[in-house]
Design a protein that fits this description.
- The protein is mainly β.
- About 0% of the residues lie in helices and about 45% in strands.
- The chain is built from no helices and ten strands.
- It has strands at about 10, 20-30, 35, 40-45, 55-60, 65, 70-75, 80, 80-85, 90-95.
- The strands form three sheets. A six-stranded antiparallel β-sheet has the order 6-3-2-1-7-8, with no helix packed on it. Strands 4-5 form a two-stranded antiparallel sheet. A two-stranded antiparallel sheet has the order 9-10.
- A hairpin with a 5-residue loop joins β9 and β10 (about 90-95).
- The radius of gyration is 17 Å and the shape is elongated.
- About 15% of the residues are buried.
- The mean pLDDT is about 90.
Length: about 100
């Protein structure tokens, strides 16, 4: 089971955006990368492709390594170490190891 999934709120541990939080909108599991809203912005030079589309410098999010992210626990209001619980019906759930709350 993956510890960081789409639509999770994460805390950035390292890099120039350390200390920021954001929502994950895409995870590349094989590469170990994720795209997080508002984190790791880069500037790309875009060429004008059509009459209606404008060229120039475009600012967009770049991927960030999963090891630089930690799941953000809403009850603790801190980045959390994640544990995996197997429930009685066989499904798995993630929980915060500090406050034992299900994420």
């Amino acid at each position: 089971m993956k510890k960081i999934k789409k639509n999770d709120i994460v805390y950035v541990l390292g890099g120039r955006d350390s200390g920021k939080t954001g929502k994950v909108f895409r995870v590349f599991a094989k590469k170990g990368l994720a795209l997080v809203e508002g984190v790791n912005y880069v500037k790309k030079h875009a060429k004008k492709t059509k009459q209606d589309q404008q060229g120039g410098i475009v600012q967009k999010e770049s991927s960030i390594h999963l090891s630089s992210l930690a799941l953000f626990c809403k009850t603790c209001s801190k980045p959390a170490h994640v544990g995996i619980n197997v429930l009685a019906d066989g499904t798995r759930s993630r929980f915060c190891k500090k406050c034992k709350e299900v994420i």
